[in-house]
Write a structure and sequence with these properties.
7 strands, alpha/beta, about 180 residues, two-stranded antiparallel sheet, 5-stranded parallel β-sheet
Length: about 180
Amino acid sequence: NGNYDRAKECGLNVAAIGSPWLYMKDTPVPKPSNSLLAFPTHSYRDVRVVGFDYCQYIADLLNAANAHGLDGITLCLHAEDYTDSIKQDLVGGRISVVTLGDVRATDYFYRVRDLIRSHAAVTSDRICSSAFYALYESVPFLLCGKPAFREPPEDSDTLVTSEWTNSRFPKLYDAMGGVP
C-alpha cells in the first residue's frame, strides 16, 4: 500500500505490474460484517461458465456459513454472469447478490478490496485471484463447493478439481468443515 509511490520517492525507476494490491493507496478499512463473501468461478470475454449448479453452490455456502456461525452470505458475480435468470435462482434468505461492475473501471480494485475487507471470510469454488486478495488483506479464504468449469476449457481446469485441490491444500477444506 503505497509501495509504488514509496519506490518512486526513493528515486527508483519502477513500473506497476502484477497484483494491483501492491500499488493501491491506503483507504480506511471498513468494520467487517459477520458474513461470508463468495466469488464463484466467472465468465469473461468469450469464455463462459457451463453447467454450474448455483442452487447446490448456495446450499454448500449456507452449510459452511452455519457451521462457522456466520450471519449471511454475499455472492459477488462477475458483470457478465449478473443476469436476471441467475439472480432469480439466488435471491432470498441470507443471500445478497452483488456485482462489482466493469473490471476496466479505474476504481474497480478499490471496490473489490472494500468488499473483501467488509466480510469475515472469503470463499470460492476454486483457488483464484480472490484467494490471494483476501489473504493479502488478512481475511481468511476457504474453498467451498464443487469447482465450476468454463467453455472453452482452460488449461488450468484440470488443476481445480475438488480431489486435486483437497490433496494439495487440505486445510482450505478443513477450515470450512470439510465441505468439498
